[in-house]
Amino acid sequence: MSNTCPNCKSPYAYPTDTLMMCPECGHEWNPEEINSTAINEGVLLIKDANGNALEDGDSVVIIKDLPVKGAPKPIKAGTKVKSIRLVEGDHNIDCKVPGFGAMALKSEFVKKA
């Protein structure tokens, strides 16, 4: 677990329950999320639910049923999504899900195909 603040790079961060806290800038973060999604040398590094690094153009499989607002049914586990595009943010995968269209997914709900 890293004690360096991802916001201001302060080495004085300390744990608070499951989060880390920076005394210099007040930033709080989950160290597990920092390990699964990081920006290294200007390249976005995003990992799937199994810890495999994802890249633009990869194919992934959804690992659990995902409800979709406004849709009568969820996206079923096992649905294969081709040609993903990685983006920064909470929902870090842009893709087209068969039967649902364009969508943003979280990387923790997919595994590399």
Key features of this structure:
113 residues; mainly beta; N-terminal domain of TfIIb; SH3 type barrels; three-stranded antiparallel β-sheet; 5% helix; elongated
Would you write up a description of this structure?
The structure is a single chain. With 113 residues, this protein is mainly beta. The protein folds into two domains: 1-40, N-terminal domain of TfIIb (Single Sheet), CATH 2.20.25.10; 48-112, Roll (SH3 type barrels). The chain has one helix and twelve strands; from the N terminus they run βββαβββββββββ. A hairpin with a 2-residue loop joins strand 4 (37-40) and strand 5. The longest helix has 6 residues, at 31-36. The chain is elongated.
Radius of gyration: 16 Å
How many separate domains make up the residues? 2
For the largest beta-sheet, the strand count, sense and barrel status come to:
3 strands, antiparallel
**Which homologous superfamily in CATH is the superfamily of the largest domain?**
SH3 Domains
**Count the helices. How many?**
1
Q: Would you kindly provide a brief summary of this structure?
A:
The chain is mainly beta.
List the helices and strands and how they pair.
Blueprint: E1 14-16, E2 19-21, E3 28-29, H1 31-36, E4 37-40, E5 43-47, E6 53-54, E7 60-62, E8 80-81, E9 85-86, E10 93-97, E11 101-105, E12 110-112
Antiparallel strand pairs: 1-2, 2-3, 4-5, 5-6, 7-8, 7-12, 9-10, 10-11
